[in-house]
């Protein structure tokens, strides 16, 4: 059984930092692309950052580039999202999702949610102004 478990969310003031973790079981993050999505009240579900095993690159949405960093610890089978300079508009539920790395990136791009096979339950991030 595949499980992705997010942790590390919480309440933080604007300008602060949080580090999210996505711990995987049943799949290996070194062979799967793991991508962070967020669900926000205003914009719905959007891709934030991806540790792509299809092209070996890290991808970031324009809204978080320069502030968020995705990394992984293969020994712990975990992918992290370091978030800095947080803004109130970063508030939302953050999910990690996984897809096999051997699969080419879908035509919708690395942030096409429909291309992911496995999802975590999400962790809430709230940034106060």
Fold and architecture overview:
- It is a single chain.
- 0% of the residues lie in helices and 51% in strands.
- It has no helices and eleven strands.
Present the secondary structure layout.
Layout: E1 3-7, E2 10-13, E3 18-25, E4 32-40, E5 44-51, E6 58-60, E7 68-73, E8 78-83, E9 92-100, E10 118-119, E11 123-128
Parallel strand pairs: 2-11
Antiparallel strand pairs: 1-3, 3-8, 4-5, 4-9, 5-6, 7-8, 9-10, 9-11
| Helical residues, percent | under 10%
Structural class, from helix and strand content? mainly beta
Average pLDDT, to the nearest integer?
95
**In whole angstroms, how far apart are the ends?**
40 Å
Q: How does the overall form come out from the CA principal axes?
A: globular
Features:
51% strand, 11 strands, 129 residues, four-stranded antiparallel sheet, mainly beta, single chain, seven-stranded mixed sheet
């Amino acid at each position: 059984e595949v499980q992705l478990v997010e942790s590390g969310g919480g309440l933080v003031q604007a300008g602060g930092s949080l580090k999210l973790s996505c711990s995987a079981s049943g799949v290996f993050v070194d062979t799967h692309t793991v991508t962070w999505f967020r669900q926000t009240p205003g914009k719905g579900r959007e891709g934030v950052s991806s540790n792509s095993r299809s092209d070996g690159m890290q991808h970031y949405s324009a809204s978080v580039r320069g502030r968020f960093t995705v990394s992984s610890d293969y020994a712990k089978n975990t992918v992290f999202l370091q978030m800095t300079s947080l803004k109130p508009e970063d508030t939302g539920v953050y999910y990690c999702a996984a897809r096999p790395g051997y699969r080419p990136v879908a035509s919708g791009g690395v942030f096409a949610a429909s291309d992911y096979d496995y999802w975590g339950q999400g962790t809430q991030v709230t940034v106060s102004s």
